[in-house]
Amino acid sequence: MKLTREKWENNFSEWFDWVIREAEIYDYGRYPVKGMGVWLPYGFKIRQAAVDLIRKLLDAKGHEEVLFPLLVPEDLLRREGEHIKGFESEVFWVTKGGEENLDIRLALRPTSETAITYMETYWVQSYKQLPKKYYQIVSVFRYETKATRPMIRLREVSTFKEAHTLHETYEDAERQVKEAIEIYKNFFEELGIPYIMSQRPEWDKFAGAIYTIAFDTIMPDSRVLQIGTVHHLGQHFTKAFDLKVQRKDGTLDYPHQTSYGISDRVIAVAVSINGDDHGTILSPVLAPIKAVIIPIPAKDEKETEKIIEYSEDVAKILVSNGINTVIDKDTEKTPGEKYYIWEIKGVPLRIEIGPRELSSNSVFIKRRDTLQGISVKKENLVSEVVKLLETLRKDLKERAWNFLRSKIRYTDNLEEAKKMLDSKAGIVEVPWCESNECGLKIEETTGARVLGKPYDSPRDVSKSTCVVCKKPAKTTLRLAKTY
Amino acid sequence: MKLTREKWENNFSEWFDWVIREAEIYDYGRYPVKGMGVWLPYGFKIRQAAVDLIRKLLDAKGHEEVLFPLLVPEDLLRREGEHIKGFESEVFWVTKGGEENLDIRLALRPTSETAITYMETYWVQSYKQLPKKYYQIVSVFRYETKATRPMIRLREVSTFKEAHTLHETYEDAERQVKEAIEIYKNFFEELGIPYIMSQRPEWDKFAGAIYTIAFDTIMPDSRVLQIGTVHHLGQHFTKAFDLKVQRKDGTLDYPHQTSYGISDRVIAVAVSINGDDHGTILSPVLAPIKAVIIPIPAKDEKETEKIIEYSEDVAKILVSNGINTVIDKDTEKTPGEKYYIWEIKGVPLRIEIGPRELSSNSVFIKRRDTLQGISVKKENLVSEVVKLLETLRKDLKERAWNFLRSKIRYTDNLEEAKKMLDSKAGIVEVPWCESNECGLKIEETTGARVLGKPYDSPRDVSKSTCVVCKKPAKTTLRLAKTY
After folding, report:
1. Among 3.40.220.10, 1.10.1060.10, 3.40.50.12780, 3.30.930.10, what is the CATH number of B6-276?
2. Quick check: B251 pLDDT over 70?
């Protein structure tokens, strides 16, 4: 069977809504508050696998998990000027408790720099306690005025992993930015999510940051989605909160901070990037169910019973080897109907067991990504399944990376850049002198969003000139249609 | 050394504040919103162990984890009349997004019956889908007017495990109530938390329930703390939300529900119940660190280095056997200062390693609960540590249960009941005719809180009469000073 990616690529938005609904990942559009949805059991397990992975990676680098209150008093949130400017139009405010008006408005946390810096004034006095690396996994809230989208642009971002670190020096915070980038790279590598890293332009960095490094990916419809950010905050918040620590030389000074976050969007990408017109394809790293067994009924009822027994035996072997496997025993559905739904759900392997498999003591295994099948003897079951899962994981990852790479273009002509972007180019790079003025001009002319300059793999622009001012280019500027 | 429980028992409130602060479990009273605190890294790990355990127990019984939005629109929350009456004075309301007034007020979830029942109208159509067992672990919010207390009475309850189930019949929901009770019993048994189960009186059941079974425990100060509740909701919410399903016989009817919850209070109890004047004592089931190694410096610096090396070797052996162990290498603190802080933190075992241990290839292990020590040869290290942890776990549990049992009294004299309660009796049972009128009279006369009638171990009251009306008693009524 030919696995097409027509709907996936050309009607992605519709495809995505269909998959998260039919695969029972995330219920969106029915809960009666705009921009808020429900993680369904299957989706919750995918989410949990991602959460477990990021915890493991952060803990291994000495991060400590904490849990702060949801509510931030207005005066705290207003303490750092740039920060509140960036967020104030998007804050949900609690103003009442019962029928009493509260003395001070309480914000649903849009992010936690202010709350955490405030508490650090109690916790940290000396450089000897530094660096400190905290993180929490919580909901954050934004009163988005843009069109909301399930898992991608929400008013309640229900899986926000935010890390907040504190350092004696600017340089140590910069080292932390690099550590955070390595952690996120490992995270995305493990999940098979391709990414590109850019330093956001001055006019699009995090409100309160010195600079922001962002991870972006390209969705099936060629639009770019930001999936992770790392900020060097310098002393902006420590000064605003008058947080001073004793330095090694005995003087008191404001320590330096970083913060970095990832969200639900990681799951949205994991579900999207490996998809086709049959549904999603989950990397085995995230898949709650690694293999689904579909018993193929025989004409003879007793034989069917034996097939079920045999299927249970196969499932037991796999489960006891740590490979979560379910049998779809529904007697009201045909095997074909079962294939349909489990393909939408993206279970990596399907194991078909019918009379032929029963009599030959074998199973027939189909990979979700290719739908190619092989017959496997029962005695080789575990080793073959492990091998297939690993091959599938690698193949998915390679395909996803190839897709991303195929969507990055270069031109030194601004008109052409605009045309490329209008015809789903993905990301277009143009040579740039690095001035804000030219950057803003490029953004305006192309009607695209500026992602910033390359952080990872800069192009050689030594012979190029800025597309606007024609002065020698210092780097490239990345442009895209974004979410 | 004699381990006293003076402060623990007689100044419990102060003891508790001291422990959670000094052990770095929960930062309370400094975050600038009343009734909200911060889970610190050490406390977060204790919390996580409890969360992992309840997840394991619920999943094993077919519960599915989901995640609902925080915000509940006012009209949804008002749908079930009794429910909103019980909660409305305690709801935090979001009324603004940015500077815009919202069309409808949004409640910070006080609990999720309404949100979940609403979504179930989309999800469930047929008895074939039943029973459904959902749960989520989230923050819930109550605008408490009573005095707030860390982890015990909060405005943000940041670890609320709420389960919500749906059933074809009243009887199946009743079966679920029993299943939930078994799950909670297993949970508390495993954590070594003693409990007593009561059916709450009519006037103190959950707002919207047919009946409520509660788990209570007795704190060191003899006051009773509710630590878990299980509610039979009948058709109250399904009727309010017009949720009908097709029954086996083809008719449409409102299904029956249960809900059950536990909270942060479980951690508060785990920290409190096994304590003494040196701090908390954590059951190995919850302890993030099972053993702490304190190297005792030698006079000779080289020997001290060898002691450190030897300590690292010991730690490595334990960690590789799944026993999380840390070495306190701080050179600015004396061993005595280290004992002090690790005792507050309640690490189950302390391993002292000095010149004597180094030369004899042994370690000296002290149990936190008794501070009794034994010398153990290195070759027996793992088996001895495992044995000690298990003995300590059992001993803690037994002591805690003995404490609870010693605090349950019986009298058929109301005056005496009042006296007992005023002199820290814990729980007092009196014979009761089971009428609301007499129950309320008992509550009024004693000035105590009525916990309800025994669910677990009812007394034989066949020869007794109600303390108020003198008619034959049907059961006992439990009274207590409560949190």
Report:
1. 3.30.930.10
2. yes
